[in-house]
């Protein structure tokens, strides 16, 4: 990957709040027109990283280059080239849909004719035409989300940063939202999205997993699942709750989850399967064990359980 293809390049990016290190020596590269997903536990540094990338937060150390701009030195110039959508609805609830977009167009310096044409286009594209006179504060979660996206892309940004944008909407709205994101990517917009949803993560072109402020794994969803050192197992058993309790302190078991009448477990290596069998045998518990394909939730659990820096 050459630097000429990179929209985001961060090296040694660090942010400290007093004695607490929120982001720790993070290296990140995102290519043009890529849909890059950020995943990690709450408090792992996703939002802090995004805020530094768009110039809203000063880094404690490291170098950032976004769309060729040095951050924070060129943060003001960068603002005209990026869009930023947060988890919390940040538009004016006492203004109508169209008034919010008209206000944002004025802030972005769009002329009246250009603003009118762009707003009409976005109202139609994001199914807002019929509610354009409705107050933003009365919109449903999905409608607010579509309005927020329209506002974020009003000025046709080259880069769109989205911080858990679908946390308050239903599955159908999330699917429609992601269809809109891929339309933007097809048109050349680069997207960096943080999410807690594994089905959304699977739709990203590449992923970065953060844990305790460190980037502990990167790659496409397929690469990450195929290269998972651990192993997922399905345990067919009569009393899954009893088996789950038995395995709680079993060496090598990273996670357990009941799936109907079966138990899905994640072990840290294929060698741990024998340990699981012996552990259950000693407890006089009989089960049928079958390996199963890894999913992104397994990757999430594995990389956030490993010692910092041990994952690739």
Structural notes for this entry:
The chain is α/β, with parallel strands linked by helices and 312 residues long. It has two domains: 223 residues, Rossmann fold (3-Layer(aba) Sandwich), CATH 3.40.50; 65 residues, 2-Layer Sandwich (Alpha-Beta Plaits), CATH 3.30.70. Helices cover 33% and strands 28% of the residues. It has eleven helices and 14 strands. It has a six-stranded mixed sheet, with helices on both faces. A hairpin with a 2-residue loop joins strand 9 and strand 10. Helix 3 crosses helix 4. The radius of gyration is 23 Å and the shape is elongated. It starts with 5 loop residues before the first strand and ends in a 7-residue tail after the last helix. The C terminus is likely disordered. This is ABC transporter ATP-binding protein. One of its GO terms (molecular function) is ATP hydrolysis activity.
Observed structural traits:
six-stranded mixed β-sheet, single chain, elongated, disordered C terminus, 28% strand, 2 domains, Alpha-Beta Plaits, Rossmann fold, alpha/beta, 11 helices, 312 residues, four-stranded antiparallel β-sheet
């Amino acid at each position: 990957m050459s630097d000429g293809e990179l929209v985001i390049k961060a090296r040694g990016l660090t942010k400290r709040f007093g004695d607490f290190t929120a982001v720790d020596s993070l290296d990140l590269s995102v290519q043009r027109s890529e849909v890059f997903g950020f995943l990690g536990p709450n408090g792992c540094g996703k939002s802090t990283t995004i805020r530094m990338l768009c110039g809203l937060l000063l880094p404690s150390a490291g170098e950032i280059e976004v769309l060729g701009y040095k951050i924070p030195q060129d943060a003001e110039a960068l603002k005209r080239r990026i869009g930023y959508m947060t988890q919390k609805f940040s538009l004016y609830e006492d203004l109508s849909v169209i008034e919010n977009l008209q206000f944002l167009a004025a802030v972005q310096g769009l002329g009246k004719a250009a603003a009118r044409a762009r707003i009409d286009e976005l109202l139609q594209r994001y199914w807002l035409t019929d509610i354009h006179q409705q107050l933003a504060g009365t919109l449903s979660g999905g409608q607010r989300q579509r309005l927020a996206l329209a506002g974020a892309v009003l000025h046709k940004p080259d880069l769109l940063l989205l911080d858990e944008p679908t946390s308050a909407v239903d599955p159908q709205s999330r699917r429609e939202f992601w269809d809109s994101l891929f339309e933007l990517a097809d048109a050349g917009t680069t997207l960096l999205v943080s999410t807690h949803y594994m089905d959304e993560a699977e739709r990203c072109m590449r992923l970065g997993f953060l844990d305790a402020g460190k980037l502990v794994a990167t790659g496409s969803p397929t690469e990450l699942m195929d290269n998972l050192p651990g192993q997922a197992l399905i345990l067919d058993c009569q009393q899954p709750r009893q088996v789950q309790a038995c395995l709680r302190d079993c060496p090598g078991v990273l996670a357990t989850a009941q799936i109907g009448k079966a138990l899905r477990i994640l072990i840290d290596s294929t060698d741990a399967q024998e340990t699981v069998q012996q552990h259950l045998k000693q407890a006089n518990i009989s089960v049928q064990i079958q390996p199963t394909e890894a999913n992104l939730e397994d990757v999430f659990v594995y990389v956030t359980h490993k010692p910092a820096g041990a994952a690739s």
